[in-house]
Amino acid sequence: KISSQFEKTANALLEKASFGAVKDESIAKALGADYPSVTLFRQFDEPRVKFEGDIGSRDFKDWITAESLPILGEIGPQNYQTYMDRGLPLLWIAVNPGESDDLLDELKPVAQDVRGTISVVSIDGVKFDGHLKKLGLTGDLPGIIL
Predict the structure, then answer these.
(1) Digits of tens for pLDDT over the chain (146 positions)?
(2) Torsion of the alpha carbons at 127, 143, 85 and 40, rounded to the nearest 10
(3) Helix (H, G, I), strand (E, B), or coil: what is residue 129?
C-alpha cells in the first residue's frame, strides 16, 4: 500500500512534479531505483536522486521542490514561482541566448557549491532586459545580479 504521507505530499505538489508508485521490485530495478525507496527522476543533472529521510517530514516536500530544479537552470515565467517558493536568494546570470554556454558550464561547479543556500539561475538578458534593469543590471551582457 502507498504511504498516506507520500500520497498527501504527491497531491500537494502535483503542479510541480509527477508521481508514481511501483509495487513490483523488478520494475523498480528496471528503472534504476532501489526497492523500496523514493526516487526522483528528472531530465537534467543526475537523472535519478534518492530521498534519504522521513517521508512524513517537511524535509520531503522541500527536497522535491529543491531537486526538481537544476543546479544552474534558466529562469522564466514558467518556473519563476518555483524558485520563489524555495525561499532562497537568487544569483541571476544574465546572458545573450546561445552566446554564453561556455560561461554557464564554467559556473556550474560554483552553483553546486552554493546549492541549498542560493539558487543560481540564468536569464535571457535580451528578452528580459527591462526586468534586469529594474534589478539593477547596467552595461553589457553577460552580467550577474545577487
Answers:
(1) 568 888 888 888 887 788 888 888 999 899 888 888 888 888 898 888 888 888 877 888 888 888 889 999 999 999 999 899 889 999 999 999 889 899 999 999 999 999 989 999 999 999 999 999 999 998 889 999 98
(2) 90
(3) helix
SS (H, E, C) 35-92: CCCCEEECCCCCCEEECCCCCCCHHHHHHHHHHCCCCEEECCCCCHHHHHHHCCCEEE
Which cell numbers hold the place of 67?
A: 531537486
The pTM is what? Answer: 0.78
Residue 40: strand pairing partners: 49
CA distance linking residue 135 with residue 115, whole number of Å: 22
Task: Kindly give, in sequence order, each residue whose CB lies less than 8 Å from that of residue 91, ignoring residues fewer than 6 positions away.
Answer: 111, 114, 118, 119, 120, 121, 144, 145, 146
